[in-house]
Design goal:
alpha/beta; TIM Barrel
């Protein structure tokens, strides 16, 4: 049975209580913290940077998964690594040299990965699987929280799973966007093992109840 990981996205957390929020969600069963970085350039929104990561890093011991929705990426990768990221992913369209950006992340001691928008083909993986630790499939168009899951993403998750299995490598397969109790099992059946959930968790008063219900759904796969 796969190891399933639930990664709440702090994009939907209460930013006035961010340290408390990440402590509480980890206490209630989260495996990772998903940290969304938007630049109002690559995506039409502006969020948080390395200083916020540095501030919350002492509050949790679980891995922090930094998703860069920025262009360009190379300049800011070292800043997030220094601030305490464990995983850094970026969109291949946002890098002039995908292989170099992946290696830069690894050179700074973090796991590296690529993120695929709903309409982005997976062929960027063809020549860099040896530098990939995680693949993130977007099941919404990036830029805003609270969007609805795009069902076509299930096909892309399945295709990414085939690529991972064929590579023989230990690569996480993450899905982000509209993940809720009622669709997390479908994403797992398609091959995902890591699930980003923002409003589905932080939008509810009882984080533990939501995470527990998600695990019940995953256990049924």
């Amino acid at each position: 049975m796969p190891t399933y990981r639930i990664a709440p996205s702090i994009l939907s957390a209460d930013f006035a209580r961010l340290g408390e929020e990440v402590r509480n969600v980890v206490r209630d069963g989260a495996d990772m913290i998903h940290f969304d970085v938007m630049d109002n350039h690559y995506v039409p929104n502006l969020t948080i940077g390395p200083l916020v990561l540095e501030a919350i890093r002492p509050h949790v011991q679980v891995p922090i998964d930094v998703h860069l929705m920025v262009r360009p990426v190379d300049r800011i990768i070292p800043d997030f690594a220094k601030a305490g990221a464990n995983i850094i992913t970026f969109h291949p369209e946002a890098s002039d040299h995908v292989d170099r950006s992946l290696q830069l992340i690894r050179d700074h001691g973090c796991k590296a990965g690529l993120v695929f928008n709903p309409a982005t083909p997976l062929h960027y993986l063809d020549y860099v699987m040896d530098k990939i630790d995680i693949i993130l499939i977007m099941s919404v168009n990036p830029g805003f929280g609270g969007q609805s899951f795009i069902p076509e993403a299930l096909k892309k998750i399945a295709e990414a799973r085939q690529r991972i299995d064929a590579s023989g490598r230990e690569i996480m397969l993450e899905v982000d966007g509209g993940i809720k109790i009622d669709n997390i099992a479908a994403a797992a059946k398609a091959g995902a093992d890591t699930f980003v959930a923002g409003s589905a968790i932080f939008g509810k008063p009882d984080y533990k109840a939501v995470i527990d219900d998600m695990r019940i759904q995953l256990a049924s796969v």
